[in-house]
Input
Amino acid sequence: MLVVLPRDGIKDNHGKRIAYDLMYVVNKQDVYVPTTVAENVAQHEAAIQPLMRTLTPTYIVMNGSVGALTGANALRATVGEKILFIHAQANMSTDGHLIGGHADLFWPGGSFANTPQVDLESWTVSAGDAIAMLYQFREPGTYAFVNHNLIKAVLFGAKSEVVVDGKWNSDLMSVVNPAGQIKR
Output
């Protein structure tokens, strides 16, 4: 992926230049893999065709494989950091969502020339498109970055995680259960 940033920096919804601490690129792909072992290329192609004709992917993954951005491979952040996420999808539209957070600033189509939208819970990434989303993490824990269609996230693999380190801010919210790793 190629990310082109404006020469005069990224601006918020009031036209003021903003800074971010890290940038993460999350590419979502649908993968069509036959469930049978093919002896030759023709057999392989024949097994994939029915899946592709009905748009029934075997996997919907983040950054190339199931679990590529989870567990030990999760994205990392610290409380207070502003993270710029670039979220792209090749073939199918997707609805991104950061469970436990939201988009403080959101640029549809990834165009930093446009005024960003604010405080979005989820966002659409059209097929063949990308978006940019900025979020400042306010509390520690494991945040799931998923396709909001949780069937795609859980059953097909369209899930990533952001592990956020730091101290809990009880002025912001009270702890009911301590933050921890998402259990599988």
Observations:
- The mean pLDDT is 89.
